[in-house]
Amino acid sequence: MWGIYLLWAGALGVCDVRSRRLPDVLTIPSALMVCAAAFVWQPVALWGAVMWVGVQLFSVWLVAGVGVRYPLGGGDIKLSLSLGVLCWWAAGLMGVLAAMGASSLLSTMIMLMLRKPNLPHGPAMLLASTAVMVFGGW
C-alpha cells in the first residue's frame, strides 16, 4: 500500500512543482476512494477531511477579504480531502492538526528562504502528511 501512496504523492508533487497544478485525475479519484473507505470502515475519519478543507476555505476567504492573492487553489483543497482522512487514520485529530500546521509552516519557510511570495502548497501538504502517517502512531 505504501508503494501506491508514494507513487501517487510523488506524481502529485512533481506535477505541482512543474505546472503549479494538482491534476483532477489524481486528486478526485483518490478523494472518492479514501472518503468511501472511511465511510465504510471508520466514519469518524471523515472529520479529518472536513477540518482540513474547512480551514483552507476559511483561510482563502479571510485572505481574499483583504485583497491579497493566496497561493492555494482548488487542487490543494481536493488534495486535503484525501490527506485529512489518511492523517486521521494514522494519528487522529492531533495528526490532522499536525499535518495542517507543518504543511503551512513548511510552505512559509520555503517561501521566505527563496524570497518568492507564491509557491505551490501541494508538496508541503504531502510531505507533512507523509510524516504524520509514518510517525503518527509513536
Automatic annotation (TrEMBL):
Q: Record's Gene3D superfamilies?
A: 1.20.120.1220
GO BP terms in the entry: methylation
Q: Which Pfam family, any one of them, does this sequence belong to?
A: Peptidase_A24
Give the Prepilin type IV endopeptidase peptidase domain ranges: 4-101
Signal peptide span: none
Annotated membrane-spanning segments are 50-72, 79-100
The superkingdom listed in its UniProt entry is Bacteria
Name of the protein? Leader peptidase (Prepilin peptidase) / N-methyltransferase
Under the heading InterPro entries, the entry gives: Prepilin_IV_endopep_pep
MF annotations from Gene Ontology: aspartic-type endopeptidase activity; methyltransferase activity
One cellular component GO annotation, for this chain's record? membrane
Q: Which key words tag this protein in UniProt?
A: Membrane, Methyltransferase, Transferase, Transmembrane, Transmembrane helix
